[in-house]
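Task: encode each sequence below as structure tokens.

Item 1
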Amino acid sequence: MIPAILAALAVSSLGAGIAVTRRSSPIRALARSATGVPCRDRGPARSRVRRFSRHAARRYRAEVDAEIPQLLDLLAAGSSAGLAAPLALRRAADGLAGPLADEVRTLVRAVDLGARWRDELDALDERLDLPDLRRTVAALTRTETLGSSLAQATAELAASVRQARRAATTERARTAPVKMLFPLVFLVLPAFLLLTVVPVLLTTVQSIR
């Protein structure tokens, strides 16, 4: 009797072990992330990573774009001192302090290792895809090809960039009151009515009764 019971228990435990093995197969175990979340649940986390990456890329490009007028001023100063375009770009990298300085220093190091500086300028333009940087690269290439004055070209371009940015800032300031209408009408005004008009109405109704 006892051997039969032990055999039955062994068979049942073996079946349970097979079921557990099927439920927790190595593939399913490997499909879990480091936090224990199954692979099918990683979609929202992956989308959050993508959104964060896009936000970081936009922020980086905005920081680079903000330094372009300073780069143009430094290029104009270096060219006025008699430096050629590649050397003026090298000196401009020393005067910058933000992410654009890192980009220009990377370009300069690549040129020192034997790369063509025009190709590196084009690669920088394609990587960042900023309109004002594209105009700067075009001015550098044009002055190097045609032998025109880099100081005049960069000074005029810096003035043009600053004027365009001031106009854009003014335009955003003009549209700010229009954008404030929605929260004013649908959020601030109802709260104001609830705090002022409703108590008066309640008091009036209670006095009439």
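Item 2
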Amino acid sequence: ALPAGSIAKLIERHAAIKAVEQPYASFGGRLAEQNDAFYTRVSERLRHKGRAVTLFDYERIVLQAFPDIYKVKCISHTSDASEHAPGSVRLIVVPNLRNKNAVDPLRPRVSKGVLEDILAHVRRHASDFADLHVTNPLYEEITVDFAVAFLPGKDVGFYLKQLEADVIQFLSPWLYDDGADLDFGGRMHRSWILNYIEERDYVDYVTDFKMHHRVDSVLYEDVEEAIATTSSSVLVSAYTHTLVENTLAACSTHHS
């Protein structure tokens, strides 16, 4: 995808066109195929022969036809309503994380129109007896709240915002690092987050640490470990977290 503002003028000037603007990142384009990509595509084509039979077949057929899709997970015997649905095939698709057009970058979703296009495409390659479903992932939210004491000389207002941004990056690393992957399933232990926070070079110590796990409208409060509830779930950071200054530490500093 070309970032917004990359296209500024026409290749050949036209008197009737005063200006050209590109307010959003591009989509739907493909780079010229390189040798490595060519050999990969041909090898995958020889393997599935244009027929969706195995999980590998479904995933590669979608990725080849839709360049704006970053990742596909195919789950057999699973439908939108049940994790145990014999004869059903569910495709979970994630849009390209490098495309900045995403309305909600913490929970990237594919539009309903694209989901329907993918479903129609897969039906042309799959068995007529397969009950196909194409959906977005189920995003399960992790929230933390705690009191924190910063090292002497650190501005509280600035570092509270910095620490919240660091926590969001730790819980959703794929949003910031092109090399990080968005993983389905998985788990997050509260001690992992706490250890990460305490390792920040501006944090002194943390107290009253709690982690909460939200699945749709259900909130599990103060859990030791958050475990994805379905095979199509992704654990992500909440938009905001509750961070407050440790007032006891502040009073001790002022007293001394």
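Check on item 2: Residues 156-171 form the longest helix (16 residues). The two ends are 56 Å apart (CA to CA).
End of task.
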